[in-house]
Please model this.
Amino acid sequence: MDFCQLPGRINDESAARDKQQDDSAAVRDRRQTPADFSSIYSADLLPASGREEMTRGFLQELVDILFGYICKSSQRSSKVLDFHHPHQLKEGLEGFSLDLPDQPETLEQILVDCRDTLKYGVSTGHPRFFNQLSSGLDVIGVAGEWLTSAANTNMFTYEVSPVFVLMEEVLLRKMQSIVGWSDDEGDGLFCPGGTISNLYSILVARYHFYPEVKTRGMGVLPRLALFTSEHSHYSVKKSAAVLGLGTENVVVVKCDERGKMIPAELESSIVAAAEKGLVPFYVNATAGTTVYGAFDPLGAIADVCHRHTLWLHVDAAWGGGLLMSDRHRMKLQGIERAWSVTWNPHKMMGVPLQCSVILVKKRGLLQECNELGAEYLFQTDKPYDVSYDTGDKSIQCGRHVDVFKFWLMWKAKGSEGFGSQVNKCLENAEYLYDQVQRRADFELVFKNKPEHSNVCFWYIPPSLRGLPPGPDRDSRLHQVAPRIKGRMMERGSVLIGYQPLGARVNFFRCVFSNPATHQEDIDFLLDEIACLGCDL
Ligand code: ABU
Model:
């Protein structure tokens, strides 16, 4: 494939900065004598007796690998990804094999495997990774995850996680107060991702209105209806399927051009559903939609929910981070009226995956809804306040410790640090918006300024520039983003997502959640897209 050259200015500046980092890494490397692990096995490490030094040496090697990866992830001259097709990775590459052996392999091989795993993965901390809502590589967050893994415990009881359980309480209280709930309301849980947090919201909403469903099952329910916007996350429908409510009973409410739910449409959908014999009970409003980054008008939606006595959930998985910014939190005005909120710190706040929270306004509801009181775990005669055995609020038994890395990052940055991080990402979005508007080879998907860090646009290759709007231009434009993306993955210089939406053919969605991204990366992105697509 005949790819054009990378823009010189960007390369020169990036290479000079990367060289400084390389130099200091080289000095550091020369000071270390590489250890020989070619005949050492995992059985030679702790807990084998007297193996403290061997274990320290091995972990030191691993730290060096991770440190090298972290340095490389921030270097603009390094690739975002070294793409291989699944069959290539399965077949094995230069000594990297996914196959599992019967006999133990040496620690030297184990270290090579660690290096290769990172090498063939995607560098989501790279300043030019724009593909996902969660990105970045926070050193304190990584340290928190290491510690969590070393602690290797379970969140279900205070007995085995005294510190982490209390940290969870502290973080949940803090987030509830930032949402705007009073001190005597609010409950919550850290969950394995935003989809599960949204699922919890439907589960507790159903239990709130029909508590007998827990014991008597679906037979006690009328045909329940849920409401969510056409731009909302698919997890609402998925949860309706999982919870036995049925995807057909999820009523999809119309949005305006900008992707915001129209409150009048919500109200008429509720009335229409009731007239058809359905029983409305739950509304999901989105604060920060996945593709457009739109904020539903929460106050007006709360008014509708109040009039019809419906549970209001706000999916702020993506937008919740903006609550940390004095400049942007007003975009979530009305969130305090929600009965439950999803907020994913692993997105806009840059906490390493995974870190998602469901907040429920009514205290005790999660416990009542989910508790089963397994006597082998949740004994009531333990020698401490067993209300801290929070595990029965969950639909899981074993639950990963997601809280520590987040708590540690909050300590390290303070609330203000998160606020500045959010501000910077939104400044980047405005910069991209301005650049796209300025350039003749790009077109915005909607004209309004970004509210969140999402910027949606098409690249218009030279062959399409003179074409009138219509089905011919649309069908050709639809093929542009996937073809550029394919080339981009081969080249590995940058990564951005694309999708169609409604009547709009495939377009790029750029999102910023990595504070390492600078304006030069945004210039690079646009130049690279233009370069990869100029012959289409
Ligand atoms: N839960 C949504 C994540 C989607 C994305 O990163 O684009």
The chain has 16 helices and twelve strands.
